[in-house]
Input
Amino acid sequence: MPNTMKAVLKSAPKPGADLKQVAIPEVGPTDVLIRVRATSICGTDLHIYEWNDWAKNRIKPPQIMGHEMTGLVEKVGERVTSVKEGDSVSVETHIPCGFCYQCRTGRSEVCQNLKILGVDRDGAFAEFVSIPEIDVWKNDPKMTPEIATIQENLGNAIDTVLAEDVAGKTVAVMGCGPVGLFAIGIARACGATAIFATDVNRYRLEIARKMGANAVLHAVEDKVVESVMEETKGDGVDVVLEMSGNVNALKQGVQLITSGGRVSLLGLFNGDVTLDLNEGIIMKGVRVYGITGRRMFSTWYKAARFLESHLLDISPVITHQFSLDDINEAMELMKSGNCGKIVFFPNSK
Output
């Protein structure tokens, strides 16, 4: 095995990223060294690349970017027992402490001392990555790398959709980025009777159709509230999934939700949000869920079963594949929005 590897770094506190040769990470007694087969871009990675306000306050360069990945186990620490060299694995990117109140009461995904791969420690946009054993997920070896790498991201959509049952219900998905697109497919697989998808990007709205949306609406150019109300005979939808982090989309969703309905919030907003809670939520008896990451590890079992059963086909969302050498081209494409999920291979595929 070589001593160095190719990796994408946030080298300095400014926009952009650099491809460099760095040392292969060390492996502690409870760590697993993984040879990366594929990795994919998340919105968080784009924030770090663009160096937005959140990134400025959270990231400490130099640091390897990236957290969604799959690969083969290259080496294991002396106390590792759950995987062995050669196993196909993916990783849960929330690294919990194991000892705080949340960890000890079954909510380690919101650990008080949580560390995130590629955010608080070196990540997976590289040829190798070292991960604590607790975060390693063993894959079906038949799963292709481009599917295996996005299970983590898929889990966000699963928890957003399945905060409550959606069978027989009408659903509005506000925002058709990759996680919103996954959410459409999950809602369809779980028996939603009508799915309305909104976005400002026509490219992604076309993917929403392929994922099973009954109606797609441009969030600005179309009459979203009027159209959905007409289709639901004035009732509104049973479920709103806010995936965009856009205040206007949230306000549309609150107008669309039927009294007694459910709103799940996954999108992150840029600053404070002003909302008429009295009329939009409280007096309508609406239940609101804040969704962060995935449940460790119940959501991973759901993701694997959705994929292995072929109830869910996420291939329409995977629109582009690049080598890590093309990091800047891929990030610029991500910024444009004219893509679904972008998958990286450490070298040319």
User: Anything to note?
Assistant: The chain has two domains: 4-150+314-345, 156-290.
